[in-house]
Amino acid sequence: MIRLFHVPLSPFCRKVRLSLAEKKLEVELVEERYWERDPDFLRRNPAGKVPVLRIDDMILSESAAICEYIEEKHPTPSLMPNDPEGRFEVRRLVSWFDDKFHHDVTSNLLYERVNRKLTKSGYPDSKNVKAGSKAIKYHLDYMAWLLDRRRWLAGDSMTLADFAAAAHLSSLDYISDVDWNRSAVVKDWYAKIKSRPAFRSLLADHVSGFPPPEHYADLDF
Amino acid sequence: MIRLFHVPLSPFCRKVRLSLAEKKLEVELVEERYWERDPDFLRRNPAGKVPVLRIDDMILSESAAICEYIEEKHPTPSLMPNDPEGRFEVRRLVSWFDDKFHHDVTSNLLYERVNRKLTKSGYPDSKNVKAGSKAIKYHLDYMAWLLDRRRWLAGDSMTLADFAAAAHLSSLDYISDVDWNRSAVVKDWYAKIKSRPAFRSLLADHVSGFPPPEHYADLDF
């Protein structure tokens, strides 16, 4: 049995959930309030963060390494291109979303609006929220630039790069922080990925105290 | 000709330099003062950061993706294990150093003491420096725990994980922020990696306004 210790709106956990689901690997989800620093959890993962995946008798942390491991052990359907250049582009974009987008957008919007309340660490800092709202426009435009040239973010097939991006955007969409009217190609891309069976578990998430907007789970948003 | 746009003490650039040198790929180093946001540089790399590598007529950014690309195109000598479990552990540790160690230690020490002065953005924040000095002890202990069980950080052979760690520690050693007396196994590990020909270019670095301590380039430190 595969078990994933996660929090529902974490984009890093969502990326792993999407990878597992796309490969039809059944997983038991265990919500882990990592900020409470449960000693059992810290023993499993000295970095003290989620996701943590128990699979093949191993306990894995770090979402990028986890997704590459899943890909190598379960290569079908493939989420990585066959050529080194294609794989480079996927890894570059995964880092782009998990480092830069995360720093510029996710941490300023999702962490301010949701995580602060969940972890009881004060009120949202409006300066950060404003910076995040500004930065997401630039990132949506960059995605539109890529999608004007390619069917999917890293090329002509769907890859881990699309899952990394969709993981961040779906968490932000849960709190209505994505303006889908900004770019038609980005909206089309999200509609395509949102309608995949792998996405269903994400669309069923409900975080206590934060009801999702109606459009969140609607495939015709 | 391979060209690397870099700054000398950036651990991300150093990791790429070590990978290239270990594989005996000659590289032209171009110092890039990325914080001055030169338009030519931003055109090459919209993330506006280093390293940026020009190789095989491609322009590559994101150090983890760059190192995997170099590894795939030039697999000998190998810096990645052959089994998925071994590769997972390498990628986990690369993320550990480039995310967690970077956040806890490098950004608090190197960026406060050096980057602030270089980029003319004020004086070191002593609170951060104190936090970094405390955190590096915990990280050195974690490395010692790993090295008590393994010849190299990720297993029995030298990998990208060792280069990621050595890249951070060598930059910190340049400003005398590593206490090599804390752990004999960590010191032995660093002595081994420091004496490799691939390390020579790093040991020859000189940053104007920041002369390195005598022990920095000394193989018998």
Number of strands of chain A: 4
Describe the global form of chain A. Answer: globular
Quaternary state of this entry equals homodimer
CATH architectural label of the domain at 84-197 in chain A: Up-down Bundle
Structural category of chain A is: alpha+beta
Largest interface comes to: A-B, 25 and 25 residues
CATH class division of the domain at 84-197 in chain A: Mainly Alpha
State the helical fraction of chain A.
40-55%
Q: Tell me what portion of residues of chain A adopts beta-strand conformation.
A: 5-15%
Distance between the termini of chain A: 35 Å
Number of helices of chain A: 8
Largest sheet of chain A, order of strands side by side? Answer: 2-1-3-4
pLDDT < 50 runs, ≥5 residues of chain A: none
Summarize the structure.
Two copies of one chain form a homodimer. Chain A is an alpha+beta fold and 221 residues long. Chain A has a domain at 84-197: Glutathione S-transferase Yfyf (Class Pi), Chain A, domain 2.
SSE topology sketch:
Two copies of one chain form a homodimer.
Chain A (H helix, E strand, L loop, with lengths): L1 E5 L4 H12 L4 E5 L7 H6 L7 E4 L2 E4 L1 H11 L10 H35 L7 H22 L12 H15 L9 H11 L5 H4 L18
Helix pairs in contact in A: 1-3, 1-6, 4-5, 4-6, 5-7
Task: Characterise this structure.
The structure is a homodimer of 221-residue chains. Chain A has 221 residues and is an alpha+beta fold. The first copy, chain A, has a domain at 84-197: Glutathione S-transferase Yfyf (Class Pi), Chain A, domain 2 (Up-down Bundle). In chain A, 52% of the residues lie in helices and 8% in strands. The first copy, chain A, is built from eight helices and four strands; from the N terminus they run E-H-E-H-E-E-H-H-H-H-H-H. Chain A has helices at residues 11-22, 39-44, 63-73, 84-118, 126-147, 160-174, 184-194, 200-203, and strands spanning 2-6, 27-31, 52-55, 58-61. Chain A has a four-stranded mixed beta sheet, covered by helices on one side. In chain A, strand 1 (2-6), helix 1 and strand 2 form a beta-alpha-beta unit. The model of chain A has no long low-confidence stretch (mean pLDDT 95). At the A-B interface, strand 4, helix 3 and helix 4 of A face strand 4, helix 3 and helix 4 of B.
